[in-house]
Amino acid sequence: MSAEFKNHIGGQWVDGASINDNINPSNTKDVVGHYARASRAQAEEAIAAAKAAFPAWSRTTPQERYEILKKASDEILARKDELGRLLAREEGKTLPEGIGEAGRAGQIFAFFAGECLRLTGEAVPSVRPGVGVEITRDPLGVIGMITPWNFPIAIPAWKIAPALAYGNTVVFKPADLVPGSAWALVDILVRAGLPAGVLNLVMGRGSEVGQALLEHKDVTAITFTGSVSTGRKVAAACVNAMPMKKVQLEMGGKNPLIVLDDADLKTAVEAAVNGAFFSTGQRCTASSRFIVTAGIHDAFVDAVTERLKGLVIDDALKAGTHIGPVVDQSQLDQDLKYLQIGRDEGATLHWGGEVLKRENPGFYLQPALFTHVGQTMRVAREEIFGPVATVQRVANYEEALALSNDTEFGLSAGICTSSLKYATHFKRNAEAGMVMVNLPTAGVDYHVPFGGRKGSSYGPREQGAYAKEFFTTVKTSYSFAG
Ligand code: NAD
């Protein structure tokens, strides 16, 4: 049987070794489409195609690259409602969230179209007479991209756009659960005018197609977003390869949101509910730990609970749905496992955590809030990646800061307060790549750096002009002019 949606290798749409049925998590009877799964040999063909395309693509003018990326941006933005619907259907984000993400992908391509024209170098006087020094940036070569399921179009966009803008060629392996958005994005880019081999799509399993990218000598660099456990394997493979590969990892989070007594309660509740539960809690930047001072603790828990009671958990495509389903059965099992672990550890399941039935069969889970949570409990330390948050009661800001930093992760950290002193202190002392004041920990701009510290990230930042740190390599040239 031929797949409806094929891989793209060396400028051709080609069938795979098998077929992946893309299932809608809001309605498991609904098959979004049949997508080709590439074999390892096809991944290797894609790498060869990207290698062959690199010399010519790396010598294109900034204007040529600008025009292609801008054209792709225009089409993504013009079709963002349709792309957002596809995304919501295959991943389970609500329709407005899906459309928002598709729009963001379009903006990212517009930004990096501009970056094609903004790349500069430096001319530096030498310490030696008659010598000039130039510092320039070269593209890396073939970039392997491995992406997760939770942002099916935005994450591929923020990797593919800078890679192409700075003159690299790409082999892109999306997550197996969400091939639809990846396919649509590649289709748009190819029709925008990319020469054959510059962007290759190999849909398939991490253990097969992903692994092929990690092991191949002609892949110069790997940009990966996903879990810590896979990230560790990716990094190890990259340093053990010969030649070694440049590697960038964006991984998990256990993001704290501190709420101080002097916070505006309404602002804090909105930041908490949005940050922890929207997108079904399946964001690496989701707030999963609320750390709340004693004076506002009970009012905060009551207000968050009231807000949760009013949320509609239903089909992602239905108007009025606030929270869509969990992405699949295995993620639902993980969420339920942690709900049990929390109870067994002695935390109080204050609200939610029920599996819900809706009109169609899907993976519906009521948002869950644990109270009476201790810092050593697994629910306060490990990434759950679902609509589950914990509340910890603390005496003061100092204790809150200590708990918020006491984690292996360091992606995003937030504080709700009306105190300039505490907000400023927190911005300086939070051990996180991104800090939010009176805002949800999730939800970031597309033109500034994104990334974390400690166990959340490894290597240079993604997004904004900082993306060039990963997608280019610096060359220092000396010349003697007599
Ligand atoms: P995952 O690690 O299971 O998979 C990520 C990707 O790696 C997928 O494409 C998968 O097929 C591939 N893969 C799996 N095994 C592989 C192997 N052996 N070799 C090569 N590739 C392999 O992660 P997921 O479940 O898709 O995504 C959820 C995770 O992603 C969460 O931990 C979340 O926090 C994280 N995430 C992080 C960020 C960030 O920017 N920090 C953003 C989104 C998601």
Question: What does the model show?
Answer:
This protein is of the alpha/beta class. The chain folds into two domains: 4-251 and 456-480, 3-Layer(aba) Sandwich (Aldehyde Dehydrogenase, Chain A, domain 1); 255-437, Aldehyde Dehydrogenase, Chain A, domain 2 (3-Layer(aba) Sandwich), CATH 3.40.309.10. The protein is 39% helix and 23% strand. The protein has helices at 40-58, 62-78, 80-91, 95-118, 154-165, 179-191, 206-215, 228-240, 265-277, 294-309, 329-345, 397-405, 420-429, 468-471, and strands at residues 7-9, 12-14, 18-24, 27-37, 122-125, 131-139, 142-146, 169-173, 199-201, 221-225, 246-250, 255-259, 287-293, 348-351, 355-356, 364-365, 368-371, 388-394, 412-416, 434-437, 457-458, 472-480. A seven-stranded mixed beta sheet has the order 14-17-18-13-12-19-20, with helices on both faces. Strands 9-8-7-10-11-21 form a six-stranded mixed beta sheet, sandwiched between helices. Strands 5-6-22 form a three-stranded antiparallel beta sheet. Strand 7 (142-146), helix 5 (154-165) and strand 8 form a beta-alpha-beta unit. Helix 1 (40-58) packs across helix 7 (206-215) and helix 3 (80-91) runs antiparallel to helix 6 (179-191). The chain is globular, with a radius of gyration of 23 Å. It binds nicotinamide-adenine-dinucleotide (NAD). The site of nicotinamide-adenine-dinucleotide (NAD) has 29 residues, from helix 7 and helix 8.
Write the layout of secondary structure elements.
Blueprint: E1 7-9, E2 12-14, E3 18-24, E4 27-37, H1 40-58, H2 62-78, H3 80-91, H4 95-118, E5 122-125, E6 131-139, E7 142-146, H5 154-165, E8 169-173, H6 179-191, E9 199-201, H7 206-215, E10 221-225, H8 228-240, E11 246-250, E12 255-259, H9 265-277, E13 287-293, H10 294-309, H11 329-345, E14 348-351, E15 355-356, E16 364-365, E17 368-371, E18 388-394, H12 397-405, E19 412-416, H13 420-429, E20 434-437, E21 457-458, H14 468-471, E22 472-480
Parallel strand pairs: 7-8, 7-10, 8-9, 10-11, 12-13, 12-19, 13-18, 17-18, 19-20
Antiparallel strand pairs: 1-2, 3-4, 5-6, 6-22, 11-21, 14-17, 15-16
Helix pairs in contact: 1-7, 2-4, 2-6, 3-4, 3-6, 4-5, 9-10
This protein binds nicotinamide-adenine-dinucleotide.
The site of nicotinamide-adenine-dinucleotide has 29 residues, from helix 7 and helix 8.
